[in-house]
Write a structure and sequence with these properties.
The chain is α+β, with helices and mostly antiparallel strands and about 160 residues long. The protein is built from 5 helices and 7 strands; from the N terminus they run ββββαααβαβαβ. Helix content is about 30%, strand content about 35%. It starts with a strand and ends with a strand.
């Protein structure tokens, strides 16, 4: 068994779509990023790569490569599934955001991640928390995310 941990944070800016977990959320601000800026999916990718000691998202999908400009992070997650040498057992993620409220979107986010990874939706957990008004997240300047994943290495 292998355990991976991921963390990511993206700044909220004007003139960007807010996409989290592959879901477009109506908001006047979106997440800054080379791809679509999907902080949740980036965190999931890092946790999966970390479980197998395969570095991080920037190593495999660098922001210096124009082919990843504005790309869907769900596509990057599907590509990550081709890289990892094992099976994902479960994913547990926490989105930290003051605004907007994530609860109405979590079901769709879980479905998107389960489809991209080939997992049953019951093996994908997503929770949302606020930062109680503290720090960058609390001031609504950014959204952060944490994720752990449990994986099983394929026999060699």
């Amino acid at each position: 068994m292998r355990i991976g941990f991921g963390y990511d944070l993206h700044r909220l800016v004007e003139n960007r779509k807010l996409i989290i977990g592959g879901v477009e959320i109506k908001s006047p601000l979106g997440l800054l990023g080379h791809s679509d800026g999907d902080v949740l999916i980036h965190t999931v990718i890092d946790s999966l790569l970390g479980a197998f000691a395969l570095n991080d998202i920037g190593t495999h999908f660098p922001d210096t490569d124009d082919s990843y400009k504005d790309i869907s992070s769900l596509h990057l997650l599907k590509e990550t599934m081709k890289i990892i040498p094992g099976k994902v057992i479960n994913i547990d993620a926490t989105i930290v955001a003051e605004y907007p409220k994530m609860a109405p979107y979590i079901s769709s986010m879980r479905k998107n991640i389960s489809e991209a990874t080939g997992m049953d939706v019951s093996s994908v957990s997503i929770k949302a928390k606020t930062n109680e008004g503290l720090g960058y997240v609390g001031r609504k300047e950014a959204i952060a995310c944490y994720c752990v994943s449990l994986c099983k290495e394929v026999s060699k």
